[in-house]
Task: inverse folding
């Protein structure tokens, strides 16, 4: 059974940085960060596939960095130059199957196991 626990969220001023962590146990394959703001749909942020290749959504590629420490079983999301529109609950998730390349998506429907989320609030 996979368990995912996010941490590192909190309040931050615009222009600041945060590093989110997702500590996981059990088998994981493609892993990704998602976020959901109030009244909005959940959207993919960034992910790492089974080979270690990374993928970013357009809004994240210039400011966010995703990485995975397999020795420590932690998925990270470094977020720089944060903006008020980055305010959301951030979730990590994993697929239940091996995926890489074209099968690695940032679509929430492809991910079966989720953490409880960590709140990020960016003030202007």
Result:
């Amino acid at each position: 059974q996979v368990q995912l626990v996010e941490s590192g969220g909190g309040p931050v001023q615009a222009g600041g940085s945060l590093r989110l962590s997702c500590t996981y146990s059990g088998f994981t394959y493609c892993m990704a960060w998602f976020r959901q703001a109030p009244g909005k749909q959940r959207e993919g942020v960034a992910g790492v596939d089974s080979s270690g290749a990374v993928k970013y959504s357009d809004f994240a590629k210039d400011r966010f960095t995703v990485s995975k420490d397999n020795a420590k079983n932690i998925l990270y999301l470094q977020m720089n130059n944060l903006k008020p529109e980055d305010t959301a609950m951030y979730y990590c998730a994993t697929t239940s199957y091996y995926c890489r390349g074209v099968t690695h998506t940032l679509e929430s429907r492809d991910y079966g196991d989720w953490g409880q989320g960590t709140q990020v609030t960016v003030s202007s």
The chain has a mean pLDDT of 95. Residues 14 and 66 are 20 Å apart (CA to CA). The radius of gyration is 13 Å.
